[in-house]
Amino acid sequence: MPRMQDDTSTGITTRTPPVRTTTSSYSVVVVTGPDVGTSFLVDGSSPARVYLGHGPTCELKVSDRRISRRHAAFALAEGGLRVTDLDSTNGTFVAGVRVFDALLTDGEIVTAGESTFRIDAAGAREVSLSAAESFGRVVGASAEMRRLYPLLETLAASDVPVVIEGETGTGKEALAEAIHEASPRAAGPFVVFDCTAVAPTLVESELFGHERGAFTGAMASRKGLFEQADGGTLFIDELGDLDPTMQPKLLRAVERMEVRRVGGDKWIKVNTRIIAATRRDLDREVQDGRFRDDLFFRLAVARIELPPLRARRGDIAHLTRHFWKRLGGLGEPPYELLRRFERMPWYGNIRELANAVSRCIALGEQNVQAEPAPTGHGDAMEEVLALDLPYPRARDRILAEFENRYVKRVLTLHNGNVTRAAEASGIGRRYFTTLVSRTGKP
Ligand SMILES: Nc1ncnc2c1ncn2[C@@H]1O[C@H](COP(=O)(O)OP(=O)(O)OP(=O)(O)O)[C@@H](O)[C@H]1O
Fold it and tell me: Residues 226, 272: contact at Cβ < 8 Å?
C-alpha cells in the first residue's frame, strides 16, 4: 500500500498521487527551415526539459546545422513554455531579440539557426504519472521524478549503457546504484570510478588493472575496475572529465567487453554494465571536440537528466522527512524547518539538503533524539575523571568516548557514507572503518 500523507500546511502535498493528472501542453512546430513540418508536443509526460538540437538524443531533433547539437531546452512553466538557450553557438531569438531564458505563450515565434519555430498552446492534457514515491533508494514524489520512474524500470530490466546528467548532489550515483539494484545484476558488484579522483597517468591501470612490474611500484598484478565489476555494474562518475587519451581505450573496452591490463598481453573478457554520470553538458564537450562522439554514442544509449532540487520543489518536504527519519530525528521534522527549507535555493541539491537535516539533528534543534551520553548528563571528561581511575584506563575511557562521538557525528554529517566521512576526518577509509566497528556504529 503506498503511503498516504497530506501536508497542506506546508503548501506541499505528498499524497499518493492520482495516477492521472492534468498539465498544460504546447506544440513546438518548425515553420521554416530544413525541417519544416516537424513538431514536438511538450506536455506532462515529457521529460522535465525537452531538447532542441541536431544531436542524436534531442527530442526535437533537427538537421539544421546552424543549430547546435543541444541548442535550447523547452520546459513547461507556470503561464507558458519556458525556453532556455544552452550557450548555443548561434543563439536563440524571440521576436528578433537574442534570449537566454524566456517565457513563451501561444503563437510566439522562436528563431534558431536557419529555422523558425511556432509555439502553439495545445490545451490541458491528462497524463499518467507513476504512483511510486521512490525508485529503490532514490526518493522523490514530485511529478518530475514520478515521470522518470517507468523509464527507470525499463532501463533496470535492460542491459544498455546509461548516462545520467545533473548538477552535483542531484543523486546521480544514488540513481545508478538504484538501477543496478533493480536490475538482474543486483547480486553482482556495483563498482564506482570517479574520473576526477585519479591522476590521468593512473586511470588506465585503475580501470583495466596491471600486471606485476608494469611500472615502478606495481609489486603485484591487480584486477582493474572493469574486472572487479564483472557480472555487475561499473559506475563511471564525471565521465565528461575523462582524459582524451583514455577515451579510445574506454570505447574499445565497452564495445568489445574485453580489457588488457597495463603491462599485460592478453585480452580478458568481462561482462560489465556501464552507467556513467556527468555534471558537464556532454553535447557541448562533443561539439567543442573534447569528448569523442563515438564514445558518446556508445554510452548515451539511454540518457536521464536529474533535475536540480530547486526545479522539483515538490520533493523538498518529502526528502526532508525521509532524511529526518533515516538520520534518527524524532517524530516529524518541525513545521518551521520545512517552510524554511522550501524557500532555500539548494545549489548543492540533495546532498546539501541531507547535510542540513543532519546538522539540525546533530545540533539539537527541536524534536531531536537525545544523544546517548554515557550517564545521560554532563561533561564526559569530568565524569571519567571523577571515577579516579588509573591513568591508562581513564585515558582509554575518554578516548573511546571521543571516538564514539566523533565517528557518530561525522557519519551523521555525511549521511552514513563511510568513504566521505573518512575523507572529511582526514584519515584512511580502512582506519575509519576500524573506528566504526570499534564504536559499534553501522
Ligand atoms: N532522491 C534521493 N533520495 C534519497 N537520497 C538521495 C537522493 N538523491 C540523492 N540522495 C543522497 O544525497 C547524497 C548525494 O547524492 P549523490 O552522491 O548520488 O549525488 P551526485 O549527483 O552523484 O553528486 P556528485 O555529482 O557530486 O557526485 C547521497 O548521500 C545520496 O544518497
Answer: yes
Domain stops at, among 305, 322, 347: 305
Ligand 1: centre distance to CA 369 (Å): 24
Is 96 a domain residue?
A: yes
Cell matching residue 346: 539548494
The DSSP result for 160-222, as a single string, is --EEEE-STTSSHHHHHHHHHHTSTTTTS-EEEEETTSS-HHHHHHHHHEE-TTSSTT--S-E
Is residue 25 located within the same domain as residue 110?
Answer: yes
The verdict on residue 1 lying in a domain is: no
Give me ligand 1 centre to Cα 334, in Å: 23
- The 8-class DSSP code of residue 271 comes to -
Query: Is 414 part of a structural domain of the chain?
Result: yes
- ipTM for this prediction: 0.98
Question: Cell 519555430 maps to which residue?
Answer: 117
Which residues does ligand 1 sit against, CB inside 6 Å?
138-140, 166, 168-174, 237, 277, 279, 350-351, 354, 415, 417
Tell me which residue range forms the domain holding 320.
310-363
What is the per-residue pLDDT across 136-169, written as a single tens digit (0 to 9) for each? 999 999 988 988 999 999 999 999 999 999 988 8
Ligand 1 center to 169 CA (angstroms): 5
Using pLDDT thresholds of 50, 70 and 90, give the confidence band for residue 409. confident
Q: How far away, in angstroms, is 166 Cα from ligand 1 center? A: 11
> Is 266 found in the same domain as 142?
yes
